[in-house]
Design a protein that fits this description.
Blueprint lengths: L7 E4 L2 E12 L5 E2 L3 H10 L7 E11 L2 E5 L13 H7 L9 E3 L5 H4 L15 E5 H7 L2 H6 L2 H16 L4 E4 L2 E4 L2 E5 L8 E7 L2 E5 L7 H4 L6 E2 L5 H18 L2 E3 L8 E7 L2 E6 L2
């Protein structure tokens, strides 16, 4: 039985549920191409009172004989998130029932929930599926040695996860990664940042990972990047192209930082774009 408070979409025989992992906070000083006062104003206009709060979503996909998780939240790393396991239980899902975990990328607020405090895998029966470039990046000792101090912990978290699931790790280049689920490379935020697309009849859904962190700022202002982007220019380019595609194709969007409603459409608003949350 689903937790009634969790937003859910039906795609053919697949049920996709947004499961909250909680929140993290990031200063507007992390944003580029926008003045913090302007960022604050956009949050105010959107009715967001906790301006620097970033919600963390994970997505539960059920059907076709599979119980799949897309990303696993922060697991409490740096006090980020940590509510996924509790909210999965509220949705009637035990960790042992998850048979695959699709990663959009391996930042700590997406993989922290894969390992517990003792260093054991939280999802004992799950295959871990990620783009091969993502795995290669975090396992590259040269990149670790050149990383700024604040980013080194990210390497250690990712490596712990890939090591903890090493017997069940599957990498891909692209294409269909599970029945009815197609990987879509979305480079810029990380080397192997990937979205997952679902198509059923005339309806399409894209789980777009971290295309935005502050949706009410970065959807109308896709040029605004965040310090977490490995390649800010490429991330902004990918975001702009994807917003155009989502508006033109009327794609339903799911995103790890899209907010608690979990699902939204992208509408053209003059020369720019606007977010329209699903009711």
């Amino acid at each position: 039985m689903s937790n009634l408070t969790s937003p859910t979409q039906q795609f053919g025989d697949l049920t996709i549920t947004a499961v909250s992992d909680g929140y993290l906070h990031a200063s507007f000083d992390f944003l580029a191409n926008i003045d913090p006062a302007d960022a604050t104003r956009l949050q105010e206009i959107a009715g967001i009172t906790d301006h620097t709060s970033i919600h963390i979503n994970c997505y539960l996909v059920r059907g076709g004989g599979h119980t799949v998780l897309i990303d696993a939240g922060g697991g409490g790393f740096k006090q980020w998130g940590g509510r996924l396991k509790t909210n999965l239980l509220l949705a009637g899902i035990q960790p042992c029932e998850i048979d695959a975990i699709l990663l959009t990328h391996a930042h700590p607020d997406h993989v922290g929930g894969l390992m517990d405090a003792s260093g054991a895998a939280v999802f004992p029966n799950a295959e871990l599926v990620a783009h091969h470039r993502e795995v290669a990046f975090w396992q590259d000792d040269g990149k670790l040695s050149r990383a700024p101090e604040r980013a080194r912990g990210n390497f250690l978290v990712a490596r712990q996860v890939f090591d903890g699931y090493r017997d069940r790790l599957r990498t891909f280049e692209g294409g269909e990664v599970l029945p009815g689920v197609t990987a879509m490379p979305l480079p810029g935020h990380t080397a192997g940042h990937t979205g997952y697309r679902f198509d059923s009849g005339d309806k399409s859904l894209l789980v777009w990972g971290d295309i935005v962190h502050f949706p009410q700022i970065q959807v109308p202002r896709p040029d605004v990047s965040i310090a977490f982007d490995q390649d800010a220019h490429l991330a902004a380019e990918t975001r702009t192209k994807l917003l155009d595609c989502a508006a033109a194709e009327q794609l339903l969007i799911a995103g790890m930082h899209l907010g608690e409603p979990g699902f939204a459409g992208i509408k053209r608003a003059g020369d720019t774009y606007a977010l329209a949350y699903e009711k």
